[in-house]
Amino acid sequence: MTISGKTMLAGVIGWPVSHSRSPALHNYWCARHGVDGAYVPLPVAPGALAAALKGLMAAGFRGVNVTIPHKEEAFRLVDALTAAAKRAGAVNTIRFEPDGTMRGDCTDGTGFVANLEAHDCAMSGQALVLGAGGAARAVIAALLDAGCDVLIANRTRDRAESLVAALGGGTVIDWDRWPDALARCTLLVNATSLGLAGHQDHDWTAPLREAPAGMTVADIVYVPLETPLLRAAKARGLKTVDGLGMLIQQARAGFAAWFGTWPDADAETRVLLLRGLNEGGQG
Ligand SMILES: NC(=O)c1ccc[n+]([C@@H]2O[C@H](COP(=O)([O-])OP(=O)(O)OC[C@H]3O[C@@H](n4cnc5c(N)ncnc54)[C@H](OP(=O)(O)O)[C@@H]3O)[C@@H](O)[C@H]2O)c1
């Protein structure tokens, strides 16, 4: 890659950010699509986001991705929000506009649904989402907007109730009783951090006994790629969708917004990310 004065710049702001696979993904897409662009990791400590965004805009960056712990603050700092960002209550993609303003988007939910569609999953019927954190909110909003009837179970029930009130849709069910609801669902989504490498174990085999044969099971956790939930679902003969496709799909809109080209989400892109994850990286 040759960087010149004309090279378009973007990056990912996080704390920490050294583990991020986004630079590898976006720089691969630049090379693959012949885009004169570069994407860099930008470690920005809590409290320094506003100054960092102002500086990057002044330095001519096209925009940035924003990840943990800055997504909610980015939501408050930008000048304009997309409908998806408003629904998610968070911003993960910012475009610096030529008029000096910042436009914030949240691509997690649309990326999740795009990945399901790429796996030929019908966006209809009843979906059960486990979790009510930041990622769950984006996923639930996108499923509701796609026309699904969404049940939500979260360990902390109040958090799920607040989410339903904020989104104006979805139905809360008890965390302890979610397996009872499976029989009438076409989709089960784990949007909690259960299954994440290094986190506490959970038994998924018993709850999945109630799952109907045609149900799809999706996990948004992708480290490990085959989570304990997906392993149990496969053993039960159910269709599974892992979290890596969501990671790739949610990145596409940012690349298009900054560099003007809609990038491929093909098998080669997936292989590139898998290689990085096996070497210990994350999204
Ligand atoms: N594939 C992708 O592109 C992508 C994108 C974004 C996030 N993610 C993954 O999504 C996961 C959640 O991220 P987030 O930002 O939503 O985190 P978050 O806001 O911290 O929410 C965590 C969620 O997990 C639940 N939880 C945590 N430990 C639990 C346990 N032991 N038992 C039951 N529930 C538990 C929490 O329930 P309580 O409310 O009760 O605490 C909450 O619903 C992370 O693992 C992240 O890596 C993937």
Automatic annotation (TrEMBL):
Residues in the active site?
Answer: 71
One of the record's GO molecular function terms = shikimate 3-dehydrogenase (NADP+) activity
One GO term under biological process is: amino acid biosynthetic process
**What keywords does the record list, in alphabetical order?**
Amino-acid biosynthesis, Aromatic amino acid biosynthesis, NADP, Oxidoreductase
Top EC class for this record: oxidoreductase
This enzyme catalyses: shikimate + NADP(+) = 3-dehydroshikimate + NADPH + H(+)
Function description: Involved in the biosynthesis of the chorismate, which leads to the biosynthesis of aromatic amino acids. Catalyzes the reversible NADPH linked reduction of 3-dehydroshikimate (DHSA) to yield shikimate (SA).
- Which residues of the sequence carry a binding annotation for NADP(+)? 131-135, 154-159, 220, 243
Binding-site positions, shikimate: 20-22, 67, 92, 108, 222, 250
User: Does the entry feature the keyword Methyltransferase, yes or no?
Assistant: no
Limits of the Quinate/shikimate 5-dehydrogenase/glutamyl-tRNA reductase domain: 124-193
The record's annotation in InterPro entries points to: Aminoacid_DH-like_N_sf, NAD(P)-bd_dom_sf, Shikimate_DH, Shikimate_DH-bd_N, Shikimate_DH_fam, Shikm_DH/Glu-tRNA_Rdtase
User: Gene3D superfamilies given for it?
Assistant: Leucine Dehydrogenase, chain A, domain 1, NAD(P)-binding Rossmann-like Domain
Its pathway is: Metabolic intermediate biosynthesis; chorismate biosynthesis; chorismate from D-erythrose 4-phosphate and phosphoenolpyruvate: step 4/7
Q: What is this protein called?
A: Shikimate dehydrogenase (NADP(+))
> What Gene Ontology terms describe where this protein resides (cellular component)?
cytosol
Binding partners and assembly: Homodimer.
This protein's record includes keyword Thylakoid:
no
Give the similarity note. Belongs to the shikimate dehydrogenase family.
The domain of life for this entry's organism is Bacteria
Gene assigned in the entry: aroE
Specify the Shikimate dehydrogenase substrate binding N-terminal domain's residue ranges.
Answer: 12-94
Question: Per the UniProt record, which EC number(s) apply here?
Answer: 1.1.1.25
Pfam families in alphabetical order: Shikimate_DH (PF01488), Shikimate_dh_N (PF08501)
